[in-house]
Amino acid sequence: MENGWGPGDRLPSELELIERFGMAKGTIREAIRILEAQGLVKSRTGPGGGVFVHQVSEERATALLGNYFYYQHLTIDDVYQIRTVLEPELAASLAGKLTEAQLRALEEVMTCYAAPAQTAQEEREQHIASLRFHALLAEMSGNPLLRFLIRFIANMLADITVSRKLYSKPNQELWSSGLDYQSRLVAALRAGDSTAARTILAEHMHNAHRLMRMQETVLTQRFLPEGKII
Questions:
Q1: Where does the HTH gntR-type domain start and stop, copy by copy (predicted)?
Q2: How many Å apart are CA 205 and CA 217, to the nearest integer?
Q3: How far is residue 27 from each of residues 22, 72, 142, measured CA to CA in Å?
C-alpha cells in the first residue's frame, strides 16, 4: 500500500517478494494468507492470475466489526445512545441535497409498511423494511464513516435483536409512529429544512428507543452474517 498500489493492482510475484523483503517462502505465503483473511488482497488462479490488492467490502467490514462486538454485551440502550447522536445529524446534512429520485427511493421503501401488519410475520418484515429506510438514507451520505456506522447499526438491529413482546401481536403504535416520523422526515428533506429534519429524526430515535424498551428488545450474542446488507 505504501508503494501506491490500489484495488485491482497486482502484487509482485512470490519470488520478487522474497527477494525484496529477504524472507523465506513460507513467511511470504503466511503473510499473503493473513492479508487475504483480512480482505486486503485476493488471489486468482489461471491465466492472468496472481495476488491482487482488494478493497475490503462493506459486507466484510460489517461482519468483522460484528465479531468484535460479539463479546461486548451491547444493550439496546447502547445502540440508541449512538443512533440518537448520529442519525439526526445525517438527516440535517442531507436536507435539500437529495435528488428527487433519491427521495422517491425512500418513499418506495415506506410502501412496504404503508398499512398496519396483520400477522407476526408481516410485522417482522415491516420492521426490517423500516431499518432499510435508515440504511438507505445513510447510503446517500457523502461521509463514508457516517454512512458505514449507521448502516452497520441498522444491520445489527435487523440480524441480532430479539423483542420478547414484539410479535405477540402487531403493535399499532410502533407502526403508526414510525411511518409518521419517516413521512415528515422525507418532507423536510425535500423542503431543504435541516432544522426540521434533525428534530424529526431525533424525536423518531427517542420514540423508537422507548418502544424498543417496552417490547423488551435485547441483542442476542450472535455473529453477524457476512454478505448480508439490508
A1: 1-56
A2: 15
A3: 10, 33, 40
**pTM recorded for the entire structure:** 0.84
Looking at the chain, list the stretches that DSSP marks H as alpha helix, in order from N- to C-terminal side.
Answer: 14-21, 25-37, 58-69, 76-94, 100-110, 120-139, 144-160, 172-191, 194-214
pLDDT tens column, 68-89? 998 898 999 999 999 999 999 9
Cell numbers describing residue 75? 444493550
Pairing assessment for the beta strands 217-219 and 161-163 based on DSSP bridges = antiparallel
Q: Is 124 exposed, middle or buried (0-12, 13-18, 19+ CB in 10 A)?
A: middle
Quickly count: other Cβ atoms within 10 Å of residue 44's Cβ.
11
* Residues 78 and 168: beta-carbon distance below 8 Å: no
Per the CATH hierarchy, to which homologous superfamily does domain 58-219 belong? GntR ligand-binding domain-like (1.20.120.530)
- The model's pLDDT over 88-118, given as tens digits with 9 standing for 90+, comes to 999 999 999 999 999 999 999 999 999 988 8
